[in-house]
Amino acid sequence: MSLLSHYRIIKPLALLLLGALSVLGFAPFYFYPASIISLIGLFYFWHLCYTPKQAAFAGFIYGLGMFGAGIYWIYISLHDFGGMPSLVAGFCTFLLCAFLSLFPAAVGALSIWISGLSLSAKQGRTMMIAIPILWSMTDWIRSWIFTGFPWLTIGYSQVPYSPLAGYMPIVGVYGVSLITVFIASLIGLWLANRFIHQAHTLIWRRNAIVVLLLIWVIGSVLKMVEWTAPAGEPTPVALLQGNISQSLKWAPEIAEQTLVKYLNMAEASTAQLIIMPETALPVLSSELPEVLKNRLQQHAISNQGDILMGLVERENGEYFNSMISLGSAKSARYRKSHLVPFGEFIPLKSLLGWIYRDWLNMPLSDLSRGSIHQQPMAIAGQKVAVNICYEDVFGEEIIRQLPQATLLVNVSNDAWYGESLAAYQHMQFSQARALETGRTVLRATNTGATAMINPHGKVLAHAPHFSETTLNVLAQGYTGSTPYVRFGNWLFLMICFLGIMFVGWQRLLAWLKCLANFLVRQRKTK
Which of 137, 410, 516, 526 is spaced 20 to 30 A from 213 at the CA atom? Predict the structure, then answer.
């Protein structure tokens, strides 16, 4: 076999492995250098590409490795709990990974096109700027296209231990993606050494080292900044984890057992705020037994606090995934507004409804959205901003209830994904939200990860997964605003806009130079 044939086999395999390596930067591994090293490898390959097609292929294969290793648990939810045939579930999971891989493919193709395929220093550095701008923009686009699926956004890989996490309260997770990818692009370009004339190599490398050190040092300093201030005394909180198997959760024959379980868990707690997971009570709110409701309310009052219950509400023929409070304070509710496509609502129902009839068996697949303008709940002496399930993936939506809220609460049911990485990755999103907002985040889940996270993104308490338990914590409320709370993603988008203007200007100059050279040649021929 020729050397070229070996390269054609080894290169895709190396790209797949590099993509899979990036997953080590995310929870539960938290080895944040892995994601940077992984990207450096990809960008090294890109800098050795000569056509946008080659770069697109490299980015696509890398994406298959990254998303295949990182979101394989989609298969578990579709097959093990959704009842979809194994071949169909596997194919659907592959299609999702392939779709998501189109984003790094597009970054590769565009970055090569923008560089003008030139080996000059100026054009090479243009590519170095273009890659992080394009990558972070595609991460952001993934957060809203087709209602959004920003899983494995590269900025999360730096939460909470990397010095780059210090930038999170300022520019949010997409800004951290930008910085992370810039570092990898700078080093990848350095290693490829495509555009640097030997006489300038030492100077350029020295400047690159200075830039990298500055980014790292500034991030480390920012991690020590207290963006928000404690408000009042800590509140005793009980986070209930019922550990109800997903295959039994909605079975009518065990509904009463589930209700009794959560009643007993709640009544065994003396916490001022007791929080149940998402849809913990498997009945409609209108069908909740009055005796159980009264006992919960009286117990909360005796604790001089409140209980947050997860259940489904029905109103005017519509169904809502809700959290409702009972206790000393006036009853309040939060209705989930960002629903999971195919899990909680059916996109293009008239065209795709057959998928549910023939292949899937998912409850709560046709819910209605709650308002996007809901206010924090004034309960247990705190102002609690609730979000349900994967709503905490969307930082720009979490800050809608800030700076009024003193605590953030995420309730979820990740039992859909079995004993996979999903629950840990989901908790890492909550860690990012804590950093962005400067707030304590409380997580109450059915099977894990039930936890308390401080404003620096550190997990202070974490219940064992797949166990029936109550996690008792003292939750400190906070007031004030981080820059991200004030400006959301606008600072990140402004930086990207300036970067695009710079890259566009360099591209225009390259075209003008080519045009000038062409005109000069034409004159000489005449």
Answer: 137
Under a CB-based contact definition with an 8 Å cutoff, are residues 139 and 177 in contact? Answer: yes
Structure confidence by residue, pLDDT tens digits, 304-315 = 999 999 999 999
For 194-237, how does the pLDDT look when each residue is reduced to its tens digit (9 = 90+)? 544 454 566 667 788 899 999 999 999 999 999 999 999 999 99
How far is residue 476 from each of residues 28, 149, 311, measured CA to CA in Å?
Answer: 25, 31, 26
In the set 49, 92, 223, 278, the catalytic residue is: 278
Upper half-sphere CA count for residue 472 (Cβ side, 13 Å): 8
pTM attached to this predicted model: 0.92
Name the catalytic one among 223, 249, 261, 336: 336
Q: For each of the domains in the chain, give its residue range(s) and CATH number, in order of start.
A: 3-225+489-525 (no CATH), 241-337+372-484 (3.60.110.10)
For tokens 């795709």, the residue is: 352
As a whole number of angstroms, the distance between CA 299 and CA 292 comes to 11
Q: Are strands 459-462 and 306-315 parallel, antiparallel or unpaired?
A: unpaired
146 CB-side CA count, 13 A:
11
Which sign does the torsion angle of CA 454, 457, 462, 465 carry? Answer: positive
Q: Is 389 a catalytic residue?
A: yes
Is 278 one of the catalytic residues? yes
